[in-house]
Amino acid sequence: MSGPHELNEVDGTNTGANFTHDLVIIGSGPAGMSAAVMASACGLRAVVLDEQPRAGGQIYRNVTVAPPAVSSLLGPDYRHGATLAQRFAACGIEVHHDTLVWDVARDLTVTAQKSGRSFHVRAPQLLVASGAMERPSPLPGWTLPGVLNAGAAQIALKTAAQVPDGRVVLIGGGPLLLLVACQLLQAGARIAGIVETSAASNRVRAMHHVLGALGAPALLAKGLRMLWRLRRAGVPMFKQATEVRIEGVEGAENTDGKQRVQAVSFTTGGTTHRLEADVALLHHGVVPNTQISRLLRVDHTWSDAQLAWQAQVDAWGQTSLAGFRMAGDGAAIAGALAAEASGAIATIGAAVALGKLDTGRAQQLAAPWRARLARQTGIRPFLDALYRPPEWLTDCADETVVCRCEEVTAGRVREMARLGCEGPNQTKFFSRCGMGPCQGRMCGITVTQVLAKALNRTPAQVGAYRIRAPLKPVSLGSLAALGQLAAPAKPSSH
Amino acid sequence: MFKPINLPAAEQRKTVLIRVEDREVHVSEGQTLAMALLGAGVVPFRRTAVSGAPRTPLCLMGVCFDCLVEVDGSQNVQSCLVEVREGMQVRLPSGARRAGDSA
Lengths: 494, 103
What we know:
The complex is a heterodimer of chains A (494) and B (103).
Chain A: E1 23-26, H1 30-41, E2 46-49, H2 68-74, H3 76-90, E3 94-96, E4 99-104, E5 109-114, E6 117-122, E7 125-128, E8 132-134, E9 147-149, H4 150-160, E10 162-164, E11 167-173, H5 175-186, E12 190-196, H6 201-207, H7 210-214, H8 217-232, E13 237-238, E14 242-248, E15 261-268, E16 271-276, E17 279-284, E18 286-288, H9 291-295, E19 300-303, E20 308-311, E21 324-326, H10 336-353, H11 359-377, H12 380-386, H13 391-394, E22 401-403, E23 408-409, H14 410-418, H15 424-431, H16 444-455, H17 459-462, H18 476-480, E24 483-484, E25 492-493
Parallel strand pairs in A: 1-2, 1-7, 2-3, 3-25, 6-24, 7-21, 9-17, 11-12, 11-17, 12-13
Antiparallel strand pairs in A: 4-5, 5-6, 8-18, 14-15, 15-16, 19-20, 22-23
Helix pairs in contact in A: 1-3, 1-10, 4-5, 5-8, 6-12, 10-11, 14-16
Chain B: E1 2-4, E2 15-20, E3 23-28, H1 33-39, E4 46-47, E5 54-55, E6 68-71, E7 74-78, E8 89-91
Parallel strand pairs in B: 2-8
Antiparallel strand pairs in B: 2-3, 4-5, 6-7, 6-8
């Protein structure tokens, strides 16, 4: 890109005169909001860019404007977000919502789009707090209308005070599955069943980590309370389900009334069940959203415990690219309270790198946050083991669509492995798997696992999709308007 | 596919009028277009370019791209990332575009 706004090469010492800020923060969920508050406290000139119209991320989505009835239904964990959002709004850091980051260069120049116009911001320190997304649950029928992620149902409640209409069947495993079931129940939805897919062997594995869990009695009690509420409400619950299939009539030529979920069938304890359903909600935990860290080609590791990629970060959130930090669930799944802590810690790290804090003061400032982080991460190995997704899902059956955009099945991916494809970038080339509008977000993790199994290699050996800009589609008009960011009238523009 | 929960009158939002294909729909303001369409029983949102299969949103948080619709003439808009506005014109994509289709 040439023209008056062309950016110079950085010399690597971060003394360039064309920095717009000290720190660019991407995302305003718990990690991003906490980072902004800390940046303000450290006297950094920071800017927050966020794709959503309001602060909160997904976990605290809409928390600043949710009706009191909705807020009370979602409980104290959600309302905690309101306190953080208030501190965020009051901290005076420049914030841009409805702002899509679509490129980040290795010199940390960030290109984003707001109101149909693209612009650059650039700072010696970049903190990506891009959060988590729900793990894709590839099972037969998961592309049918009426199938949503369980988290999506929670977003519907938070943003629109709506719940699924008709019979709802929840499928999967994890704390969020039970939480969403409880919230929907309380909000007046009709739960026709909860089909848990966690394998029996998970309990044995989880027992190895029970000590860490006992260190978080409040969380354990919360889990038991949710189970009790669902049982008392008479919600049918099924455990260790296999052969889960969502039935419906799929295909272009059907009449409108039949283009959606009709039932969920599965096997448990040797018996086949069939639950009629109008809406099916899927959940198999959450995984880091690694689009930006993949774009920047930093080092990632495959976590066998979480069955997901994690960008490698040090104790201050620093990745393998100098100045680029990650915090929150975008780095590794640990939940909202941990994200708040890691966002603050990474910002302290940035302040040290910028010469605004000495290391002694930084350690002092970070200590309470580290203690909080440790409290939150202690229970993780137990939860990861207990709710590990079943192998029939991560290495799904041949007929299952893995790439929803290009409609490529697991069988097709295996066929390409037999033909000599050694990784996801080759299967992409031969089948378009991962080349649709979602740019591999929904299939990447599945394709890596299916290929690893088929090739008898580890996911780390098989690798992940190469991610390229634009991270989401942008129009030519937006590119043409590429210019410097005009300062907003108010620091907190909505 | 979705329905509103019972909210006290004081907490209910006023409505805006949008047009979905040839149908006028009153929807609560302050929600995303995807939620407004789900609440209005719009099924499917689109038919895929590959096989013409019907789809509705999976994630509602900007990652699945199954909520793509045409908004005020702009194609492939993630309806879970835009809020409804009075007078919004929505068209539901149907299959792949062919050369010569109007923009």
